Amino acid sequence: MDEINPETLLRAYAYGVFPMGEARGSDTLYWVDPELRGILPLDTFHVPRRLARTIKAEPFTIKVDSAFRSVMEACAADMPGRGGTWINAAILKAYSELHEQGHTHSVECWQGSQLVGGLYGVSLGRAFFGESMFSHVRDASKVALVHLAARLIQGGYVLLDTQFVTSHLSQFGAIEIPRDDYKSRLADALTGEPGDFYSIEAGGRDVSAADILQSINQTS
Fold first, then answer.
1. Domain that holds residue 194
2. Do residues 149 and 42 make contact, with C-beta atoms less than 8 angstroms apart?
3. pLDDT in tens, 149-187
4. Calpha distance 172→167 (Å, rounded)
5. Which 3 state secondary structure label does DSSP give 183?
6. How many CA atoms lie within 13 A of 53 on its CB side?
7. How far apart are CA 135 and CA 138, in angstroms?
8. Exposed, middle or buried: residue 204 (CB in 10 Å: 0-12, 13-18, 19+)?
9. Is residue 145 assigned to a domain?
């Protein structure tokens, strides 16, 4: 079985590569360094109009880091239309350990006691590396992504890495950039004070839908 640990993962992300399992039930891992890298520029992040209305209606309770492993397990699960995933046992273990060290985070959508959508990723310096997302009800993963973007903007992050660009991400403004450009942006994001993933909650106040949309609108 290919072994990865938190230290190896952090070095890999700082270099610009990330791991993927061959399949959920496989022990094989690959290190990926795409020629074209997907990113979501935070200064032009776009919230589609219909989704903004959904966010204002607040259909979900948004939580952060309250069920990290459950989010990963939901992302790893087979779903209709998606088939298998690349999140294997080694990845689940290593990223859970990173979470205990404060380097990985989840944004979660809840309805009552049910986790219905969310995402997780790695935080390093002023970069956030989005790993995977899931949705059990309409718009849950999209709402989680908007909450993530607002949090990153408020916290001083400058790079949101999506690895690849999908139609799901394109509606928010995701683009592909060449590997050299990406690594230049990454190097910049790893200098200076690290981003503060929790700054949007400064003062202990609740974060409203208006706060989220205002944070994004101030930069776009």
1. 6-217
2. yes
3. 999 999 999 999 999 999 999 999 999 999 999 999 999
4. 9
5. helix
6. 2
7. 7
8. exposed
9. yes
Structure token digits, residue 220: 């776009």
Instruction: Kindly list the distances between the CA atom of residue 173 and the CA atoms of 90, 107, 157, 194, 210, in Å, as whole numbers in the listed order.
Output: 32, 20, 17, 24, 21
Which CATH number characterizes residue 143's domain? 3.40.630.70
Residue ranges of E strands in 40-83: 61-64
Domain-located, residue 100: yes
Nearest CA among 19, 39, 42 for reference residue 29? 19
Whether 1 maps to a domain, the answer reads no
Q: Name the CA radius of gyration of the chain, rounded.
A: 16
State the residue for tokens 């959920």.
Answer: 24
In a domain, 210, yes or no: yes
State how many domains the chain has: 1
Backbone φ and ψ of 201, nearest 5°: -100, 15
CB 195 within 8 A of CB 126: yes
pLDDT tens string 108-155: 999 999 999 999 999 999 999 999 999 999 999 999 999 999 999 999
